[in-house]
Amino acid sequence: MTELATARRSRITPEREAELYEAVLDLLREVGYDALTMDAVAARTRSSKATLYRQWGGKAELVVRAIRHSKPGRIDEIDTGSLRGDLHALVRLEDDCTIERNSALMRGVAMAMHNNADLRAAFRSQLVEPEMSSFHEVIRRAVDRGEVRPDCPALDFLLHMMVGGFATRALLDDQPPTQEFLTSYIDAVVLPALGVPTT
């Protein structure tokens, strides 16, 4: 990247960037991914479309970066001393209202990914891969502490189990996931699969 391009990308302050991301998420909740346009983002945020494209390249990158920015923290930064404590602490990062709003948002984005290769690629590189890396760090600590056997076959499916509990709550029960549901799910499904005691 040239110095000029770097200077252009750095013109947006962190505060302004946060405002833009919040506006993008609001629009995403209102109209969905397919109907969201860069024109609408520019109008909502009083930005030029050229600035948006220069900074983010396109809609997929902007939307995924907005979702990533809204995440309350990284799981690998949580270290309670036990895997159960770490996973419960992860659930407690967001209250039930926020979990419900984000669950609905992610369902809409997941639907859009089926027909949009750019969104799928951005989602994978900006969210899925970092999340997988964070979970691997949590698991490494649990294995190092002797909580989980290194050859436990369920280790490769930890993230799948976590996402599954989150995503299927609305699908199967017609209810949003809640802290209570997710912590119960962790204790009843995830930890037993890993051979970790829940008491």
UniProtKB/TrEMBL annotation:
Transmembrane segments annotated in the record for this chain: none
GO molecular function ontology, one term from the record: DNA-binding transcription factor activity
Domain spans labelled HTH tetR-type: 14-74
InterPro entries in the record: Homeodomain-like_sf, HTH-type_TetR-like_transc_reg, HTH_TetR, Tet_transcr_reg_TetR-rel_C_sf, TetR_C
DNA-binding region per Swiss-Prot/TrEMBL record: 37-56
Keywords noted in UniProt: DNA-binding, Transcription, Transcription regulation
Pfam families: TetR_C_11, TetR_N
SUPFAM superfamilies in alphabetical order: Homeodomain-like, Tetracyclin repressor-like, C-terminal domain
The name this protein goes by in its record: TetR/AcrR family transcriptional regulator
The organism of origin for this protein: Streptomyces lasalocidi (Streptomyces lasaliensis)
